[in-house]
């Protein structure tokens, strides 16, 4: 069962049908128009009652049906019937004529597709009259690979159900359109009611009403308060039912028990969106009643336990918060779970003269979430910068797609939260130890192009930089200062942040030498000396900006008795082609506009802050310009065999099964033999070449080499048998068995692994392996599925990457291995952990020498299926 949105923004319920729905299914078919009946049945139908019962039958291996309910009434049905135990199913649709253009058929088809994929179906088939253009368009526009016959009165339609990025993008586009239409009730309401506004100044309800009145909302406003005829000049009614009109948006400021009743009254009255300021609902029966009301009445809801909502749209401005100071209008969209963060951010932005387009405090997040705001902002051209403070992710894979789409057109910023690593202490594999919650979250942000910060103060620093300067054209930075110490500090900060200190050209150095005193430093960082006048400093800054080898400049200045170079910067700025940040050590504000009013650039109190912002902007610019290289591989010979193998196993795989899993996934692994602890090694030893390595498979043995579980360069049958006895003696009852492999060629030992998260999906980890794994802890991580670009970024994401690939290693082979492991993680969602350590990489190829794998049953979820939070 799922709440979902139609194209026009109406909330509907989509759920599987069961025999109890037979009467409604029959009624839906009975009220079809003659034309719709002809299209559905190719003539006059017979046996409708029997057909309705078949459609509403319990779901099974050969049958599945879903219905769409709008305000409790069944308005659409879609079903499929599997053909002769094959991977094909025939699909059929019926939609009530009253909702024909609202996307019911498409929504139902998406739910059928999602379920069919989980059961292993490969194709949907349909027979459609050629004149039935509407249904043909529904099938064709789904985003699936589509084929249709040509000629004759009927069309044989085939839809391919394989995973396809184009289909995901089509679903997200429909989701965004529907979500924006739905949120218009929240952000562009025609009328508002404040429920629970009191006459007492200082109360939350009174403050919300006062802010709404002050904001100048142009539509009708009413109050619900049984003890007043008017409050702050706004007419009051004793109940929601008694309001003079049905408000499109209501805000509730009541104690928890009364708030529940108010939500239910709003639903009955036909209110479309509700903001619940009230706290004390979550975790109680009252909270469950609110959830039930949202489902029953198709409400969009912000909160509960939230600061409220602000919209500064000139056509429909309103402030439904208890902010002490009204948020300034501007171009920054903000969504935050924390009301306190929302207050702090609104005040900080206001101090800088910056403002918001929308500010939404989601609180306990019953419905409207960060993903909703990402979709709203994508359609809202007033929002030029998006800011998120999210303490949890309901659907991070969808978040990643939505954030990536938005970040292509405007910056998306997020405050890191909820990334503690405590739960990783007892990790049972090297990959799990590296794949901490913080690593997983940061991989999500990085791949989506989100600019991540750790504090609200850093957030404001970056917002100021983005608001008042261009994105830098590259990482090459020059520092110009009239105080040598400040310049050195700025240069050090730039290098710590991974920026490149630009090499000034000879022409630039000659210009600087003519401008500046003899004792000045004309190499980067440029020290003009404290004795230069403001206009000379400005000329020096111009000379550096004219250098083609400089992408950005940090200008650090201090006032002296000779003059204040900081006063000259405004005359130089804004450069139309390069980024410049000012630094004024000792200024009172952490960041401020360089001049009063809208600043031409951001001025920071510390060089480190300016360098940190510049580095984040450089990385965002690089992400924008990064081409998505191909990550395609030769298709697997038998992916169904891989899925079937995984479906039959659970828990940590035996070494033999783990190797077989890799073989089925076409992941290169060394030839491996496994002997149970209680068996004899004699027969196997006689067949093995030499030299070989023996590895213990023992309970609790993670670090085989350090734990004495590896015996190398064992030669000859007798010595192999003796080595087996040594391991059996060393580990006793803990020994499950011994793996025997030929000694691999010399090379660099690497780690490649997967850790799957129930919420985020599979994370691919790459790093130095073998004995270096924990000693050096040099890892990089990306969320699957990996593109070719993702694989390259993993290869270049280690501290040691430059030295690693300067050696004679087969980079292409390691890249291909990463892509194959990513594909394995996608094809086998049961893969909870995979540890290939070490992977031996040489000048020609790479191969996994040791593998640990754990499979875990998972409830298959489709992260891109259109549905609202429940």
UniProtKB/TrEMBL annotation:
The reply to whether Nucleotidyltransferase figures as a keyword in the UniProt entry is no
Q: Which PROSITE patterns match?
A: ATP_GRASP, GNAT
Could you tell me the keywords of this UniProt record? ATP-binding, Ligase, Nucleotide-binding, Transferase
Q: Where is the ATP-grasp domain?
A: 659-710
Signal sequence annotation: none
Domain (N-acetyltransferase) spans 12-164
Q: Which InterPro entries match?
A: Acyl-CoA_Synth/Transferase (IPR051538), Acyl_CoA_acyltransferase (IPR016181), ATP-grasp (IPR011761), ATP_grasp_subdomain_1 (IPR013815), CoA-bd (IPR003781), GNAT_dom (IPR000182), Ligase_CoA_dom (IPR043938), NAD(P)-bd_dom_sf (IPR036291)
Give GO MF terms, alphabetically.
Answer: acetate-CoA ligase (ADP-forming) activity; acyltransferase activity, transferring groups other than amino-acyl groups; ATP binding; metal ion binding
Instruction: Give the superkingdom in one word.
Output: Bacteria
Say yes or no: keyword Glycosyltransferase present.
no
This one is known as: GNAT family N-acetyltransferase
């Amino acid at each position: 069962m799922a709440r979902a949105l139609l194209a026009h923004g109406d909330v509907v319920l989509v759920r599987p049908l069961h025999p109890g729905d037979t009467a409604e299914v029959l009624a839906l078919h009975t009220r079809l128009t003659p034309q719709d009946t002809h299209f559905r049945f190719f003539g006059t139908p017979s046996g409708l009652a029997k057909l309705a019962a078949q459609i509403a039958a319990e779901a099974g291996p050969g049958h599945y049906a879903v219905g769409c309910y709008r305000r409790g009434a069944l308005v659409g049905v879609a079903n499929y019937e599997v053909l002769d135990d094959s991977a094909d199913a025939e699909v059929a649709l019926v939609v009530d004529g009253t909702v024909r253009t609202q996307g019911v058929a498409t929504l139902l088809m998406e739910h059928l597709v999602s379920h069919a994929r989980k059961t292993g179906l490969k194709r949907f088939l349909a027979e459609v009259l050629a004149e039935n253009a509407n249904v043909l368009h529904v099938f064709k526009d789904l985003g699936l690979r589509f084929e249709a016959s040509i000629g004759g009165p009927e069309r044989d339609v085939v839809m391919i159900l394989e995973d396809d990025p184009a289909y995901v993008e089509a679903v997200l586009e429909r989701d965004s359109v529907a979500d924006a239409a739905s949120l218009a009730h929240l952000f562009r309401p025609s009328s508002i009611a404040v429920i629970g506004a009191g006459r007492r100044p200082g109360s939350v309800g009174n403050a919300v009403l006062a802010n709404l009145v002050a904001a100048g909302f142009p539509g009708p406003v009413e109050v619900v308060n049984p003890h007043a005829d008017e409050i702050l000049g706004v007419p009051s009614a004793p109940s929601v039912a008694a309001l003079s009109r049905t408000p499109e948006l209501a805000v509730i400021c009541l104690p928890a028990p009364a708030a529940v009743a108010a939500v239910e009254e709003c639903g009955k009255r036909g209110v479309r969106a509700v903001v619940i300021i009230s706290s004390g609902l979550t975790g109680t029966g009252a909270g469950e009643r609110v959830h039930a009301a949202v489902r029953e009445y198709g409400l969009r809801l912000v909160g509960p336990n939230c600061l409220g909502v602000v919209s500064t749209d000139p056509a429909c401005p309103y402030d439904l918060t208890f902010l002490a100071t009204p948020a300034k209008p501007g171009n920054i969209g903000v969504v935050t779970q924390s009301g306190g963060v929302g207050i702090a951010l609104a005040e900080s932005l206001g101090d800088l003269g910056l403002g918001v387009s929308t500010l939404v405090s989601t609180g306990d997040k019953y419905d409207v979430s960060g993903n909703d705001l990402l979709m709203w902002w994508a359609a809202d051209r007033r929002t030029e910068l998006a800011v998120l403070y999210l303490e949890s992710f309901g659907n991070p894979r969808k978040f990643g797609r939505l954030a990536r789409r938005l970040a292509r057109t405007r910056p998306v910023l997020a405050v890191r939260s909820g990334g503690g690593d405590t739960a990783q202490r007892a990790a049972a594999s090297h990959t799990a130890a590296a794949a901490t919650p913080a690593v997983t979250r940061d991989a999500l942000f990085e791949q989506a192009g989100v600019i991540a910060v750790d504090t609200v103060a850093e957030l404001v620093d970056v917002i100021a930089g983005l608001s008042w300067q261009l994105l830098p054209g590259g990482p090459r930075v020059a520092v110009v200062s009239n105080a040598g110490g400040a310049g050195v500090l700025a240069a050090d900060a730039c290098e710590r942040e991974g920026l490149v200190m630009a090499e000034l050209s000879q022409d630039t150095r000659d210009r600087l030498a003519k401008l500046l005193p003899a004792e000045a430093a004309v190499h980067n960082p440029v020290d003009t000396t404290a004795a230069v006048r403001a206009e000379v400093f400005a000329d020096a800054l111009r000379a550096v900006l004219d250098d083609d080898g400089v992408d950005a400049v940090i200008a650090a200045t201090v006032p002296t008795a000779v003059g204040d170079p900081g006063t000259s910067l405004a005359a130089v700025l804004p450069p139309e082609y390069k980024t410049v940040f000012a630094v004024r050590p000792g200024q009172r504000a952490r960041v401020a506009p360089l001049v009063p009013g809208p600043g031409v650039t951001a001025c920071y109190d510390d060089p480190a802050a300016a360098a940190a912002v510049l580095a984040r902007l450089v990385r965002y610019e690089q992400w924008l310009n990064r081409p998505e290289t191909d990550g395609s591989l030769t298709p697997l010979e038998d992916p169904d065999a891989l899925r079937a193998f995984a479906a039959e196993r659970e828990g940590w795989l035996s070494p033999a099964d783990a190797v077989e899993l890799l073989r089925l996934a076409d992941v290169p692994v060394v030839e491996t033999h496994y002997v149970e602890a209680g068996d004899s090694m004699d027969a196997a030893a006689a067949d093995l070449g030499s030299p070989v390595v023996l590895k213990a498979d023992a309970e609790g043995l993670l670090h085989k080499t350090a734990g004495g579980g590896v015996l190398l360069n064992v030669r000859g049958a007798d010595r192999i048998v003796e080595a087996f006895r040594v391991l059996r003696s060393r580990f006793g009852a803990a020994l499950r068995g011994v793996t025997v492999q030929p000694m691999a060629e010399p090379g660099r030992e690497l780690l490649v692994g997967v850790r799957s998260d129930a919420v985020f999906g599979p994370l691919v980890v790459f790093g130095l392996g073998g004995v270096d794994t924990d000693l050096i802890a040099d890892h990089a991580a990306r969320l699957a599925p990996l593109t070719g670009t993702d694989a390259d970024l993993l290869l270049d994401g280690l501290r040691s990457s430059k030295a690693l690939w300067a050696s004679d290693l087969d980079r292409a082979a390691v890249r291909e291995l990463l892509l194959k492991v990513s594909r394995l993680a996608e094809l086998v969602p049961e893969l909870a952990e995979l540890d290939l350590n070490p992977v031996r990489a040489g000048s020609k190829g790479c191969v996994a020498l040791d593998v640990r794998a754990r499979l875990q049953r998972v409830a298959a979820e489709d992260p891109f299926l259109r549905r609202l939070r429940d």
